[in-house]
């Protein structure tokens, strides 16, 4: 019996040493759901495009910086669309059963989607502005004889490819909205509810001015985001550029040199 007690005590001592050894070598795993603050120790580059472009020709440097910055912005906007808008628009209205939707839930679902649609409207306008700026810069490059000759051998395949990716992203957003049957079915019901509330606000217990603003916002979102308006409004906008000759703004589509290069 004494030998058994000694063995148990010795074994317990060894186990304690092993536990202490592991406690000294292992740290607690960070729990992102319970820990409020986390510190990222990964190294990140803080080098801008202007710092990377160094040439002995200031005009070349400016052109490279402009088109590089636009290309980076194309990629950033595409990532935002894929990360923030694609999935919510594709999954809106998805249910686990085929039971009829209770009365009033359709309007509530669309109302809950309005903040996302507002963010999407702002995002789409940003995309339109960036595309317009890109086309204007491209027209300016090929509208200047000196710049055109200086960049005659330059290849803008990466720039044009990323621009095409951004335009494809706008088309995808149009398809997601048009292809979501639940959204297409519930949106008219939501508008009818707002119109009824605007006519009889006391029945709904809402402020008439607030109802009016909400209805106007819904109509604006419909004109900006539905029926293929995202891509259509982008390509239908006026792409202005200044040729530097004092003739004022012109339509970039009239720049024959640019159109020839793009089609090539």
TrEMBL record:
Residues 6-241 form the WASH complex subunit 4 N-terminal domain. The lineage of its organism: Eukaryota, Cryptophyceae, Cryptomonadales, Cryptomonadaceae, Cryptomonas. One of its GO terms (cellular component) is endosome. Pfam families: WASH-4_N (PF14745). One of its GO terms (biological process) is endosome organization. This is WASH complex subunit 4 N-terminal domain-containing protein. It comes from the Eukaryota. InterPro entries: WASH-4_N (IPR028191), WASH7 (IPR027307). It comes from Cryptomonas curvata.
